[in-house]
């Protein structure tokens, strides 16, 4: 589950991570009120107005702007709220902005001091199976660009799960970032608190870009990209309310509501499969046949008529789908039951199904299932072997 910046900062702050303070606003009037409140609490006269969408590169699309007075706060907030923000991480249509974060200006001058920006993230290193802290002196930039052009400026610190983050590792992070004195001490505290927030919240990603050293040597998170593991939400009921369905793919949201595991993709062949492993193999099969999978869809072990019909309706919401491949292994569920579900769902939907359907059923009562499909009189093709299904997919998509 992805979070907005302001939500990620709330979690960070709850674990003692210093953050750039801000107040979320739904309209320009709320933005002005938020700016006044921040001025009263922090003394800041300038404010940063940030679009709250689930996408990086907001500044490049005009979604992050500095306001030097209340009139500019009102004007900028009015411009950003309601706009379709296009960034390198959105589609060509962009994402509609429903709210902004009015944040304090933390780039204040101090005699003899200077600001520095760093990059820092905490995530799982899948190669080693350990959590790691990735960080760089090149904050405020796309980390992909840094990795490509100056890979020597990216550091990593892997965490032994048996002991957790050790103090010497937090100090090494601060040292590699070139810090000393008060900033060095504050960075070690920041790193420790950040890692605690990551582990305790069951996150799969905490990305702070930039981590700022202020002119008076304070370390704080100016941004926050946070992803929480969906499978751990039962342990964080308070986080569930943070989900913003407006930011998610509406088809995926609908599929989740009816209990289907669905991920939208960019291809032309819809997939309906039971089991994640078989689903991955089916997508490979489609690519070998010259097509592209339009989705990942796992119907689970109860592929009855109602569930199959729901899956059909979800898949057919994608206008790019030119064919549907149903690939079911009848282990827990009998193949003949699935086949009857396909036939009943097809009849219930009537003319709504306008694309060819290939059904491959293997396992318990697979022979009976094939007879049901072949004798149904519907425009449904049955297959027994993987290659046979691939050939039929290739034939219908051209």
TrEMBL record:
Domain (ATP-grasp): residue spans on this chain: 9-237
UniProt remark on cofactor binding: Binds 1 Mg(2+) ion per subunit.
One term under GO cellular component: succinate-CoA ligase complex
InterPro entries recorded: ATP-grasp, ATP-grasp_succ-CoA_synth-type, ATP_grasp_subdomain_1, Succ-CoA_synthase_bsu_CS, SUCC_ACL_C, Succ_CoA_ligase-like_bsu, Succinyl-CoA_synth-like
GO biological process, one term: succinyl-CoA metabolic process
Catalytic activity: succinate + ATP + CoA = succinyl-CoA + ADP + phosphate; GTP + succinate + CoA = succinyl-CoA + GDP + phosphate
Positions of Mg(2+) binding: 209, 223
GO molecular function, one term: magnesium ion binding
UniProt keywords, alphabetically: ATP-binding, Ligase, Magnesium, Metal-binding, Nucleotide-binding, Tricarboxylic acid cycle
Cofactor: Mg(2+)
Chain positions recorded as ATP binding sites: 50, 57-59, 106, 117
Keyword Cytoplasm: no
Alphabetized Pfam families for the sequence: ATP-grasp_2, Ligase_CoA
Keyword field contains Manganese: no
Top class in the EC scheme: ligase
Biological or metabolic pathway of the protein: Carbohydrate metabolism; tricarboxylic acid cycle; succinate from succinyl-CoA (ligase route): step 1/1
Binding site for substrate: 274, 331-333
Database matches in PANTHER family: SUCCINATE--COA LIGASE [GDP-FORMING] SUBUNIT BETA, MITOCHONDRIAL (PTHR11815:SF10), SUCCINYL-COA SYNTHETASE BETA CHAIN (PTHR11815)
Family: Belongs to the succinate/malate CoA ligase beta subunit family.
Protein name in UniProt: Succinate--CoA ligase [ADP-forming] subunit beta
